[in-house]
Design goal:
There is one protein chain. The chain is of the alpha+beta class and 389 residues long. Strands 3, 7, 10, 11, 12, 13, 14, 15, 16, 17, 18 and 19 form a twelve-stranded mixed β-sheet that branches. The protein starts with a strand and ends in a 13-residue tail after the last helix.
Length: 389
């Protein structure tokens, strides 16, 4: 993201950006995590976010071709014009902050060229709560370098809404496979002592199997941005989507929001891939028996719907050994996942300490055995008095 007072690129027209001036001191209002208000970070002035009466709706997948949108690859950077200081901000984000005066910048959803979000899961954890969660996470990483502990104290933590597609589908799947049933025979063998023994040996008979299974999927989540690794974002689940609110730009004020770079059609392909293992397990359950083989599955998707949701993530980063490492925090539940380097010094010290402990134990064991042997060999021979006179 770049900020400039000069004109933007010739092919980039400025887009409408909403700012939220404070009604108390004229500074700025930001969405306060965990509350339904905009709040001024300076004077504390609060303004309730008025409900619009909108509902989060599921969009029929069949309507996708008729929705007003541009291909992801044809959308350039947005050029925001700050209403407070007139600075221009060029960014790929749909919500940002002015780098000159700190004013929130939120794009008019209708001017983004993309599908408008249906819902948003507002941030619940503020910066202080996130620092506590990250400190707890870092303290449990014994072999991480000390630099990891600094991640919770850095101002690089960004509260960012990540776009996600959700998909609903009523699936009907026809499968073909095999059902395995176990049976046992008695086998005679000779053991290591030369004695004849018997044992039960398991075998499997396979029978052809086919049938139909049905399952309704609800809100299968697919990350809509490739900025962060998909597996790292998936680790933040589960998300309490039932607590989501209908989208309002106010929830983005003072935070960042990425625009999607995964088209909904590509997202549905990923959603089908996520549904496939569940359907395969349904097929195995339907086949029954002791073992199952699923050879083919033909799935039909009916009544497919989708929507765009914005989910809250705190992104923290730090530099170690010339590499940038990221830690992600679920802004609703506090779940923490991230990358961590390994401290060679701490590992070496731990190995050394373990070797010392082993050496000390070995020393005391040897000393105890030596003392027992010496005690056993120190007996005294006593003769009875008397004998031939």
């Amino acid at each position: 993201m770049t900020d400039q007072h000069a004109q933007g690129s010739p092919d980039q027209a400025p887009v409408a950006a909403t700012t939220y001036p404070c009604g108390g001191c004229g500074a700025r209002l930001e969405f306060a995590p965990g509350q339904s208000v905009l709040q001024c970070p300076y004077c504390g002035f609060r303004q309730e976010i008025a409900a619009t009466g909108r509902q989060i709706r599921e969009i029929a997948y069949a309507e996708l071709p008729s929705l007003p949108r541009k291909p992801v690859g044809s959308i350039g950077a947005y050029v925001f014009v700050c209403q407070r200081c007139a600075a221009r901000t060029e960014t790929d984000e749909t919500a940002s902050v002015c780098q000159f005066c700190g004013a929130p910048l939120v794009i008019d959803p209708g001017a983004s060229g993309q599908i408008v979000p249906e819902g948003v899961l507002p941030f619940e954890l503020d910066r202080g709560a996130v620092r506590t969660a990250v400190r707890s996470w870092t303290s449990s990483r014994w072999f991480a370098p000390s630099a990891l502990k600094k991640v919770s104290d850095t101002e690089s933590m960004k509260s960012t809404y990540l776009p996600h597609w959700t998909y609903d589908s009523r699936t009907v799947s026809r499968y073909a496979g095999q059902r395995g049933e176990h049976y046992y025979t008695t086998e005679t063998y000779t053991d290591g002592d030369g004695k004849r023994q018997t044992r039960q040996v398991q075998h499997t008979r396979w029978y052809p199997a086919q049938g139909t299974v049905a399952r309704a999927f609800d809100d299968v989540l697919v990350p809509g941005s490739g900025v962060l690794p998909t597996d790292k974002v998936d680790d933040l689940a589960p998300w309490p989507l039932e607590q989501a609110a209908p989208f309002q730009p106010e929830f983005l004020a003072g935070h960042f929001a990425l625009r999607y770079d995964v088209e909904p059609e590509d997202g549905f392909t990923q959603a089908r891939n996520r549904m496939a293992p569940v359907i395969a397990e349904d097929c195995r359950r339907d086949i029954g028996g002791d073992e199952q083989r699923v050879q083919s599955v033909d799935t039909r998707h009916n009544d497919v719907t989708f929507k765009l949701m914005l989910l809250p993530v705190w992104i923290a980063s730090y530099v170690y050994a010339g590499k940038t490492w990221q830690v992600l925090v679920n802004g609703r539940t506090g779940e923490v996942h991230g990358e961590r380097p390994w401290s060679k010094v701490k590992i070496a010290l731990a190995v050394l300490a373990a070797l010392i402990v082993i050496a000390v134990i070995a020393y005391f064991v040897a000393a105890h055995r030596g003392g027992s042997a010496q005690h056993a060999g120190s007996g005294v021979l006593i003769s009875e008095p008397g004998g031939p006179g």
